[in-house]
């Protein structure tokens, strides 16, 4: 019985199933009992249970039909604040009549990616529909959320999962899915997932698919080589070797065939750069170069041109290291 | 005439401003000038639209007149012969701001290139005096070929403001062809569209005519049908122009390429970007040249975002002079080196092929019969832009190859569509953004689909993917 994505299958369904964030869960349980809640702002790193918490709360509060009382939007997928406003309007306009709870919940993921202007518009919308709709904004950093929104929300800070909990959870899934996860495999997952439980679970599932349910470190590294960071590491190495044409070809594959966003590529390039075994001075210079290109991209410049210019800088750095 | 029997170029000509293709800047200029007549008679009583054929000069005037609810009086070549008619009829019309239908008037002198210099000199001066007196907007339209046209129309150029139309960019022509083919339910090979859109060199009208010529009465067009498209006699100036540009020693010399290439700036930019890494084979030159292109890209973004097109000149300088002057250490043997590396990568000794330079590019001739290896070599050489030349049994690799980007988007059209739809399903089911689905989850799904059919089937069912989407994840 292994259908669907394990990360969803083992997502805690209600607040009682949540083993971490004890304090947050206690407060959320109170909301569920009282059938009332303020606007919420959940901040914390990826894959620690922010979305899970609000979904669990919704289920506890509305019962099995909770889906019709929530709307989940991802700020990075919506085209501008006007689209968001329309969706919110349509969702919030109809009161939640069939329920004892007089409001619905709108979940806005990656709210910290909204521009300041968009957040101000959102704040206005929150005020207008407060009677019929509560907002749960989710993001990684509260610094990127404007003050007026912060002051209208109860803020919940999610801490990173402990190593203990993370390992325990992955081990639990492996057991239930009859995957033989040997300690080296678990170590490799833990190292790669950067505290993100969803990433860890997805890695486990993909690795289990490759080796007929035995997961060791080799299986994990095999999978890691074929996901974006692995490929971008290859791209960097091609650049450093001075093989610009092949690097550009690879860049085109990532951008066009695989549809990666330029900002994701540059983010991963930066984190891979820090891990590179190159002279420190070069590292500083390349970080500066990445920063410049990052800025140019935010100004609307063309991704392929800008990233190619960066690869050319890598090639130059590689040449300098040779001599 | 019923709609079906109309020539396609007019049947599919745009009816609203949104449907106009390309030349945004020129059209905006034209529109804001026409609107400036709303209150007072502006200082410039005429504008002069010029540019190559088939890029939408006339239709822009027609469409804008309709959009702005103006009564358009079209004057064309046959009227220029009779100075009398010009002075009396048109001159009188130019004094009436409102027509009998109650609409405001606009006058267009079309096909001005049809005025022959000496004979019709009277015509030009008659038009000039109409412009000086006019109380309604006057638009002059001429297809400009060669340098002398400006000389010919000097009296008119002096009293009107110029609006230049560029060739329609390749991608836009392609899109338009695609739309037309869709409307006609016509199945056209991507390769054919590519050939046609490329060959028309920005002349959209001729391109639609060509499509009609080969497609009337058919439902499906393949490369075989396209073989007999008549070549319009236009030389491809781009490689020559690039050659000159890359060897320029001054900014001025490099900039001249823009006027001699006869292609639009965006396409030229793509050509330069495509070929720059081969010409600038020294790492320092390459980094400098790419930095110049990156800066050019920024100037262009700023210019079009703020609609302040003065900024475009900085783009031209960076993409031409900036790139050309970066070439200081390069040996210019990048392409030869590339060929040799490819041959070595394929596992052949250097003497298995004769690699020679010619004026147009490099020829790569196998010394012995390749047999089963041919396809493998062909794929690899195609990858760097070479093509098999049938008659002379060798591959030819031009010094400058056309931009690959558009190609690439086209080739991956279906797979990108699947990528998007799968990402959307994942985003909904897993409560994540679709960007995250693309970056983090889909690569893992692909691994699962390749290795574990049962698990894959479960996921497809859970996500509600159709067969094609599941197949795509497996590929």
Structure description:
The complex is a heterodimer of chains A (323) and B (475). Chain A is an alpha/beta fold and 323 residues long. In chain A, strand 3, helix 5 and strand 4 form a beta-alpha-beta unit. A five-stranded parallel β-sheet of chain A has the order 2-3-4-1-5, sandwiched between helices. A two-stranded parallel ribbon of chain A has the order 6-7. In chain A, helix 14 runs antiparallel to helix 15. Chain A starts with 5 loop residues before the first helix and ends with a helix. Chain A folds into three domains: 152 residues, Rossmann fold; 62 residues, Helicase, Ruva Protein, domain 3 (Orthogonal Bundle), CATH 1.10.8; 95 residues, Zinc Finger, Delta Prime, domain 3 (Up-down Bundle), CATH 1.20.272. In chain A, 59% of the residues lie in helices and 10% in strands. With 475 residues, chain B is an alpha/beta fold. Chain B has five domains: 142 residues, 3-Layer(aba) Sandwich (Rossmann fold), CATH 3.40.50; 57 residues, Orthogonal Bundle (Helicase, Ruva Protein, domain 3); 87 residues; 68 residues, Hypothetical Protein Ta0175, Chain: A, domain 2 (Alpha-Beta Complex); 63 residues, no CATH class. In chain B, 54% of the residues lie in helices and 11% in strands. Chain B has a five-stranded parallel β-sheet. A four-stranded antiparallel β-sheet of chain B has the order 8-9-11-10, with helices on one face. In chain B, strands 6-7 form a two-stranded parallel ribbon. Chain B is globular and about 80 Å long. The two termini of chain B are 50 Å apart. The chains are: A alpha/beta (323), B alpha/beta (475). The interface between A and B is large, with 59 and 59 residues.
């Amino acid at each position: 019985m292994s259908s669907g994505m394990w990360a969803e299958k083992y997502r805690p369904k209600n607040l009682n199933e949540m083993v971490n964030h004890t304090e947050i869960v206690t407060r959320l349980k109170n909301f569920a009992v009282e059938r009332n809640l303020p606007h919420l702002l959940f901040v914390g790193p990826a894959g620690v249970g922010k979305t899970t918490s609000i979904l669990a709360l919704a289920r506890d509060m509305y019962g099995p039909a909770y889906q019709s009382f929530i709307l989940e939007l991802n700020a990075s997928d919506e085209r501008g604040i006007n689209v968001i406003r329309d969706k919110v309007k349509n969702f919030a306009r109809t009161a939640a009549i069939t329920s004892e709870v007089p409001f619905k919940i709108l979940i806005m993921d990656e709210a910290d990616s909204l521009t300041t202007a968009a957040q101000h518009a959102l704040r206005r919308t929150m005020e207008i529909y407060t009677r019929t709709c509560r907002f749960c904004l989710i993001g990684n950093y509260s610094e990127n959320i404007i003050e007026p929104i912060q002051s209208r929300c109860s803020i919940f800070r999610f801490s990173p999962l402990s190593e203990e909990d993370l390992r325990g959870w992955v081990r639990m899934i492996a057991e239930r899915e009859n995957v033989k996860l040997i300690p080296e495999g678990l170590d490799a997952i833990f190292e790669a997932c950067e505290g993100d439980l969803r990433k860890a679970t997805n890695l486990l599932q993909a690795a289990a698919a490759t080796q007929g349910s035995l997961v060791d470190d080799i299986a994990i590294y095999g999978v890691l080589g074929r996901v974006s960071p692995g490929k971008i590491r290859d791209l960097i190495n091609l650049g450093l070797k001075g093989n610009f044409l092949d690097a550009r070809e690879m860049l085109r594959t990532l951008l066009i065939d695989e549809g990666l966003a330029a900002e994701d590529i540059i983010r991963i390039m930066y984190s891979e750069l820090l891990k590179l075994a190159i002279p420190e001075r070069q590292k500083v210079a390349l970080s500066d170069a990445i920063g410049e290109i990052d800025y140019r991209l935010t100004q609307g410049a063309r991704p392929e041109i800008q990233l190619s210019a960066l690869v050319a800088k890598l090639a130059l750095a590689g040449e300098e290291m040779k001599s | 005439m019923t709609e079906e029997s109309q020539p396609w170029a007019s049947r599919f000509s745009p009816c609203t401003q949104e449907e106009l293709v390309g030349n945004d800047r020129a059209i905006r200029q034209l529109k804001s000038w026409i609107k400036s007549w709303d209150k007072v008679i502006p200082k410039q009583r005429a504008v002069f639209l010029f540019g190559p054929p088939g890029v939408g000069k006339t239709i822009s005037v027609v469409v804008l007149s309709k959009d702005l609810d103006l009564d358009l009086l079209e004057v064309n070549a046959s009227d220029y012969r009779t100075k009398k008619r010009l002075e009396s009829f048109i001159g009188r019309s130019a004094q009436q701001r409102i027509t009998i239908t109650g609409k405001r008037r606009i006058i267009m002198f079309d096909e001005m290139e049809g005025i022959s210099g000496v004979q019709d000199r009277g015509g030009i001066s008659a038009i000039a005096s109409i412009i000086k007196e006019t109380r309604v907007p006057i638009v002059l339209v001429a297809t400009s070929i060669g340098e002398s046209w400006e000389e010919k129309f000097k009296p008119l150029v002096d009293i009107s403001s110029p609006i230049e139309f560029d060739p329609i960019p390749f991608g836009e022509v392609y899109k338009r062809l695609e739309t037309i083919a869709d409307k006609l339910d016509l199945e056209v090979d991507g390769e054919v569209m590519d050939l046609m859109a490329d060959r028309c060199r920005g002349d959209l009208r001729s391109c639609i005519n060509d499509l009609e010529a080969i497609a009337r009465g058919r439902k499906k067009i393949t490369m075989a049908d396209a073989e007999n498209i008549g070549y319009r006699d236009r030389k491809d100036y781009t490689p020559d122009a690039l050659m000159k540009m890359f060897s320029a020693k001054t900014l001025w010399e490099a900039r001249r390429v823009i006027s001699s290439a006869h292609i639009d700036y965006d396409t030229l930019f793509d050509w330069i970007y495509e070929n720059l890494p081969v010409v600038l084979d020294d790492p320092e030159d390459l980094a400098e040249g790419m930095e110049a292109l990156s800066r050019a890209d920024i100037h262009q973004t700023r210019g079009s975002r703020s609609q302040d097109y003065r900024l475009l000149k900085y783009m031209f300088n960076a993409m031409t002079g900036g790139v050309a002057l970066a070439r200081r250490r390069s040996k210019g043997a990048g392409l030869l080196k590339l060929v040799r590396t490819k041959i070595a990568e394929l596992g052949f000794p250097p003497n298995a092929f004769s690699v020679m330079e010619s004026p147009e590019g490099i020829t790569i001739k196998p010394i012995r019969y390749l047999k089963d290896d041919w396809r493998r070599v062909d794929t690899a050489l195609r990858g760097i832009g070479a093509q098999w030349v049938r008659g002379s049994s060798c591959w030819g690799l031009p010094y400058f190859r056309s931009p690959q980007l558009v190609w690439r988007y086209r080739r991956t059209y279906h797979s990108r569509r699947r990528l998007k739809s799968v990402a959307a399903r994942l985003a909904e089911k897993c409560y994540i953004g679709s960007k995250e689905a693309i970056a983090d989850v889909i690569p893992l799904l692909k691994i699962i689909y390749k290795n574990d059919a049962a698990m894959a089937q479960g996921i497809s069912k859970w996500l509600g993917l159709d067969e094609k989407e599941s197949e795509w994840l497996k590929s």
